[in-house]
């Protein structure tokens, strides 16, 4: 049993390292493609797109939330990205919200953020999220680099949402995070190169008592993300 546990942990570790390497390469690719916006993104021209896929996790009792509960968050993200960055949030698949009906592992239902999320990448949670990413199958199956949002039960700390930033292809949002309609857009900002702002009126303020204003350099950074494309 000890040997089996060791090999299982080693397999998770190797797969996580491969995912990190692939994402770093993809991030570098994004910088090359997005060099114009990295320099002149504050012009917010021409229009761009970001593809979003949302998966609602299930536990033994069924889906954690109803898909309709996400409508305010999606509407806020679409309006903010369009008005502030001239970026259209579109669905990666036919339906922007889908339900993963089979019960998720406990590690994926109650997750961590910050360094805890990095540790989760090397365990059952990271394996589960990686196996359900939109647009990926070990390697990107399309060059659209969608953002996948997973609706989880809760965080082990006080967070309502989490993203590991530009090197990640997914974010996590708790049930409370869904209720805070600006959290989805905030975490998408992290996935698209943005960090926390010191201004409460800014989209990247650290808690949900935030506005949706952005600074000129945030436009450059977000529009230069590999997730934000002209096609």
CATH topology: Collagenase (Catalytic Domain)
**What is the share of helical residues?**
40-55%
The shape is globular
How many separate helices?
9
| Strand composition percent | 15-25%
Labels describing this entry:
two-stranded antiparallel ribbon, 231 residues, Collagenase (Catalytic Domain), alpha/beta, 7-stranded mixed sheet, 9 helices, 40% helix
Task: Describe the 3D structure.
By secondary structure, the protein is α/β, with parallel strands linked by helices. Helices cover 40% and strands 19% of the residues. It contains nine helices and 13 strands. The strands form four sheets. Strands 1, 4, 5, 9, 11, 12 and 13 form a seven-stranded mixed β-sheet that branches. The longest helix is centred in the N-terminal third of the chain and has 32 residues, at 2-33. It is globular and about 50 Å long. The model has no long low-confidence stretch (mean pLDDT 90).
């Amino acid at each position: 049993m000890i040997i089996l546990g060791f090999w299982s942990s080693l397999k998770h570790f190797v797969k996580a390292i491969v995912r990190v390497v692939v994402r770093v390469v993809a991030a570098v690719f994004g910088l090359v493609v997005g060099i114009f916006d990295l320099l002149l993104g504050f012009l917010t021209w021409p229009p761009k797109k970001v593809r979003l896929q949302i998966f609602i996790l299930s536990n033994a009792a069924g889906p954690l939330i109803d898909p309709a509960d996400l409508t305010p968050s999606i509407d806020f993200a679409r309006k903010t990205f369009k008005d502030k960055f001239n970026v259209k949030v579109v669905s990666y698949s036919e339906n922007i919200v889908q339900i993963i009906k089979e019960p998720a592992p406990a590690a994926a239902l109650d997750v961590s953020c910050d360094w805890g999320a990095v540790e989760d990448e090397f365990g059952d949670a990271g394996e589960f999220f990686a196996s359900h990413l939109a647009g990926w199958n070990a390697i990107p199956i399309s060059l659209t680099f969608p953002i996948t949002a997973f609706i989880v039960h809760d965080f082990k700390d006080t967070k309502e949402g989490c993203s590991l930033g530009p090197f990640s292809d997914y974010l996590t949002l708790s049930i409370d995070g869904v209720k805070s309609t600006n959290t989805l857009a905030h975490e998408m900002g992290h996935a698209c190169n943005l960090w926390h702002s010191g201004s409460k009126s800014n989209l990247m303020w650290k808690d949900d008592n935030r506005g949706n204003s952005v600074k000129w350099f945030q436009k450059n950074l977000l529009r230069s993300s590999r997730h934000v494309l002209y096609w």
